[in-house]
Design goal:
The chain is of the alpha+beta class. It has two domains: about 190 residues, Fructose-1,6-Bisphosphatase, subunit A, domain 1 (Fructose-1,6-Bisphosphatase, Chain A, domain 1, 2-Layer Sandwich), CATH 3.30.540.10; about 130 residues, 3-Layer(aba) Sandwich (D-Maltodextrin-Binding Protein, domain 2). Helix content is about 30%, strand content about 25%. It is built from seven helices and 17 strands. It has an eight-stranded mixed sheet with strand order 4-3-5-6-7-8-9-10, sandwiched between helices. Strands 12-11-13-17-15 form a five-stranded mixed sheet, with helices on both faces. A hairpin with a 4-residue loop joins strand 9 and strand 10. The longest helix is centred in the first third of the chain and has 22 residues. It is globular and about 65 Å long. Bound molecules: 2,5-anhydro-1,6-di-O-phosphono-D-mannitol and magnesium ion. 2,5-anhydro-1,6-di-O-phosphono-D-mannitol binds next to strand 5 and helix 5.
Length: about 325
């Protein structure tokens, strides 16, 4: 029998002198949230959770019922344990302070409770993404500005993928490991130790319908992929786009590839579609820890100093040689 996720984390924490057990406790609560979300996602129409909620989030996106339900599940599972000082969610305008009746802890968490939720009604994989930061020293009542830490300061990042299997993939800065939920036992078990993103790939992922809005370097790169053996790359590429970042990134962790949600001119008010705090930073931590590269095209994503909780950034991540090639195209213009 392989190790459970909690055994794995406890053994990892034993290597850290003076570890208090707080982090292990926090992870336990996150696991519990993901199990409950997996249950609801899995039951779908049987328990009446599909469809639109008829509301909008802070970013003006229509919320699904499950966006709201899963946000609530994540908060309830994590607010009581005494490990967190505050939370921030893609689905909430402002940060969530830990209610007074519960002790406050030393960590902050940002999360997207149901990423790719536009896929939920068509029974396609979705996920939960989270990123753990330290609450700044001496801060007992955190504000949004306490979350404005670059991705390089993350203590842990992970995602749960609700696909044919439910998996949790995470890093604490010591490589990337994947765990699969055994529903009969009710626990996650190590199934994918030391995940590595292959340095080369013949697969790219991008929403092609945005093509006319891309900048020249991305136009050039994708054009070369499409030309295949008949173009300068002299090899054929395959395209995949699930439209759930968790599923697209998971594929890249399993077999390589490049994922792009690049800068585009579709909406002048935003630099990209994906959110730095809930999507780009946690995925970058995971992908970099697995040997991949993550960039906006011009800068390393994790080096960005956040300026807003719901800030959006261009995202280009995955196999090292392909991402570096596209980054070099940005330098050519
Ligand atoms: P969400 O957090 O509102 O679900 O949006 C994020 C999703 C990502 O999972 C995915 O990569 C992207 O948005 C898909 O966007 P598009 O529908 O424009 O292709
Ligand atoms: Mg999302």
């Amino acid at each position: 029998m392989s190790k459970s996720l909690i055994q794995f984390i406890i053994e990892e924490q034993r290597q850290i002198p003076n570890a208090s057990g707080n982090f292990t406790g926090l992870l336990n609560d996150i696991i519990s949230a993901c199990k409950q979300i997996a249950h609801d996602v899995n039951k779908g129409a049987l328990i009446g959770v599909l469809g639109s909620a008829g509301s909008e989030n802070v970013q003006g996106e229509t919320q699904k019922k499950l966006d709201i339900i899963t946000n609530e599940i994540f908060i309830k599972a994590n607010e009581w344990g005494g490990h967190l000082a505050a939370m921030a969610s893609e689905e909430m305008d402002d940060i969530y302070e830990i209610p007074k009746q519960y002790p406050r802890g030393k960590y902050l968490i940002t999360f997207d409770p149901l990423d790719g939720s536009s896929n939920i009604d068509v029974n396609v994989s979705v996920g939960t993404i989270f990123s753990i930061l330290r609450c700044p020293e001496g801060v007992t009542h955190p504000t949004a500005s306490d979350f404005m830490q670059p991705g390089t300061t993350q203590v842990c990042a992970g995602y749960a993928l609700y696909g044919p299997n439910t998996m949790i993939v995470l890093t604490t800065g010591n490589g990337v490991n994947g765990f699969t939920l055994d529903r009969d036992v009710g626990d996650f078990f190590l199934t994918n130790p030391d995940m590595q993103v292959p340095v080369d790939t013949q697969e790219f992922a991008i929403n092609m319908s945005n093509r006319r809005f891309w900048e020249e370097p991305v136009q050039r790169y994708v054009e070369e992929c499409i030309k295949g053996v008949d173009g300068g790359r002299e090899k054929n590429f395959n395209m995949r786009w699930v439209g759930s970042m968790v599923a697209d990134v998971h594929r890249i962790l399993m077999r390589g590839g490049i994922f792009m949600y690049p800068f585009d001119t579709k909406d002048a008010a935003r630099a990209g579609k994906l959110r730095l705090m809930y999507e780009a930073n946690p995925m970058s931590f995971i992908v970099e820890q697995a040997g991949g590269v993550c960039s906006t095209g011009r800068e390393r994503i994790m080096a960005l100093l956040p300026v807003g909780l719901h800030q959006r950034v261009p995202v280009i991540l995955g196999s090292k040689n392909e991402v570096e090639r596209l980054v070099s195209y940005h330098k050519d213009v």
